[in-house]
Design a protein that fits this description.
It is a single chain. The chain is of the alpha/beta class. The protein has 13 helices and 8 strands. It has helices at about 40-50, 65-75, 95-105, 120-130, 145-150, 155-165, 190-200, 220-225, 230-240, 255-275, 280-300, 300-305, 310-320, and strands at about 15-20, 30, 80-85, 110-115, 135-140, 150, 175-180, 205. The strands form 2 sheets. A 6-stranded parallel sheet has the order 1-3-4-5-7-8. Helix 11 packs across helix 13. It is globular and about 60 Å long.
Length: about 325
């Protein structure tokens, strides 16, 4: 269990904004994730012989830890906000109980959590709508099939359907936010993702991938990356006239969404323009190794999802052999 404070008033002995990791229980094996954050990956790594001990952990299943957590929450009467991470929080059997406890303790608080969008249900939404405010941050990398190539175990069409269903429940205090990880495996059509976010008036919290390094955008050949820039520039040009001059843009505020999405486009263009890493050949070997390994596990083929990468993948595949 991890508590992290974003603000600690001098007069308070305890932080009033908490970040809580519920464990690594997860039903997906995202390619940029690791055993510490996904029980599915942990189990696969054990099967592959890459780790000898399970990294699976869920402290809420420990009654003593659970009681201690509730006592800690009760000791902070002015708790302002709690943010939950997993794994997948909705897979946690105690998550509904946790929401009920928080509503009983302090319904005036704000909450947020990150979900992969595969396990949403009406009873959870009804609980979430009772808080002062709630942000449900749905992880989505693409609106096309390469989303479930990246987020292995999901079905992109179903996740998008769930996001739209969740959007129908939005209110002034209950918001849907998209979370993404711009990377080599989605930069080919990430512009369409941003356009979709604009069409649906959804804020995007993009966190560029840094680890594993072999999935960074700069690992793609520089010339190949240059062919993608015009798409992002075209989106910037289409959004520019939509910028409002009457309000500032924050990550979760859609009143000036165009400005936020333009910043996201510019960040991606910067990564497309970045020089190739000094160890790019080594990173490309790692890329083909892991893509091949995961493709065999899930019965996938990267070349079918990325026709624009086909020659690049074939070339580094031959070099790897």
């Amino acid at each position: 269990m991890l508590f992290r404070s974003s603000f600690v008033p001098v007069a308070q002995q305890s932080p009033i904004d908490w970040h809580v990791d519920l464990g690594n229980e997860c039903n997906l094996s995202c390619k940029m994730c690791n055993p510490r954050a996904s029980s599915k990956i942990s189990n696969t790594f054990i099967k592959w012989g890459l780790i000898s001990e399970s990294a699976n952990q869920n402290w809420t299943a420990n009654e003593s830890a659970w009681c201690n957590f509730k006592s800690s929450v009760s000791a902070v009467p002015n708790l302002n906000r709690m943010h939950f991470m997993g794994g997948e929080p909705l897979l946690n059997k105690r998550f509904p109980e946790l929401l009920d406890f928080l509503l009983d303790h302090n319904p005036g608080m704000s909450i947020s959590f990150v979900s992969n969008g595969t396990m949403l249900n009406q009873s959870i939404v009804e609980r979430l709508q009772k808080f002062r405010s709630c942000d449900v941050e749905i992880s989505l990398e693409s609106i096309h099939d390469n989303n479930h190539y990246i987020r292995q175990g999901s079905v992109t069409e179903e996740v998008i359907k769930n996001i739209k269903w969740l959007c129908d429940h939005q209110t002034e205090t209950f918001h849907v936010v998209l979370r993404s990880v711009p990377q080599l495996l989605n930069v080919n059509n990430y512009d369409q993702y941003l356009q979709w976010a604009w069409s649906n008036k959804l804020s995007v919290q993009g966190i560029p991938l840094t680890d594993p390094a072999y999935l960074q955008i700069s690992v793609l050949p520089y010339q190949l990356r240059q062919t993608m820039i015009p798409k992002y520039q075209a989106l910037i040009d289409s959004l520019q006239p939509q910028i409002s001059t009457t309000s500032l843009t924050t990550g979760r505020n859609v009143s000036n969404l165009a400005q936020s999405l333009i910043r996201e486009c510019n960040a991606v263009v910067s990564m497309l323009l970045a020089p190739e890493p000094d160890n790019v050949l080594e990173l490309r070997q790692q890329l083909i190794y892991w893509l091949t390994k995961w493709d065999r596990e899930f019965g996938l083929d990267a070349r079918q999802f990325y026709p624009e990468y086909r020659e690049f993948l074939l070339e580094i595949g031959r070099a790897h052999v």
